[in-house]
Every structure is written in C-alpha cells, then in structure tokens.
Design a protein that fits this description.
The chain is mainly alpha-helical. The protein is built from four helices and two strands; from the N terminus they run ααβαβα. The protein has a domain of 60 residues. It is globular.
C-alpha cells in the first residue's frame, strides 16, 4: 500500500499538482520534519511559500525521517499529532 500511495504522491509532487490540491484544503496544513531528515526542508516548504500556501512548520530535534519510530522524537511527534487532532 505504501508503494502505491508514495508513487502517486511523488507524481503529484513532480508535476506540481500537489500545490493545487493543497491550496484547496479546508483544514490547516502542518509540516512536521526532523532536523536530521534526508529530505531537504527547502524542497518541502519553498513550494508552499512561493504559492502563498499557509502552513505551520514543526521541527523535531535529533530526528530523521520517521519521527514515530525515533527515540528522541517519538514523544514530541505524538504530542503534536494529539494536539492537532483536538483542533
């Protein structure tokens, strides 16, 4: 399932269609990223900034790409998800 979803997401990102979809969201957009993530944060947030898409950014210290699995970030990540789910 992950591969199927990721291939669709990668296609949307490559074509820029994800920005059109994101602009039409009726819920707030949150970017959660670890400071050790191999994905450059500029490549994640700059397209949103250039498209004037409002988002909130959460940086997790001592964290890579899988915060729910990482010793130093798991609790912080789950707390962010918990707070966001209450909104």
């Amino acid at each position: 399932m992950f591969q199927s979803i990721w291939s669709q997401a990668a296609q949307l990102r490559k074509s820029g269609q994800h920005l059109n979809i994101t602009q039409n969201l009726a819920i707030p957009l949150h970017v959660i990223q670890g400071d050790y993530d191999s994905h450059d944060i500029k490549g994640v947030i700059e397209p949103f900034q250039k498209s004037n898409i409002t988002f909130e950014y959460h940086l997790l210290p001592e964290c890579g790409h899988h915060p729910w699995q990482e010793k130093h970030a798991k609790d912080s990540f789950l707390e962010i998800i918990k707070v966001l789910s209450l909104d």
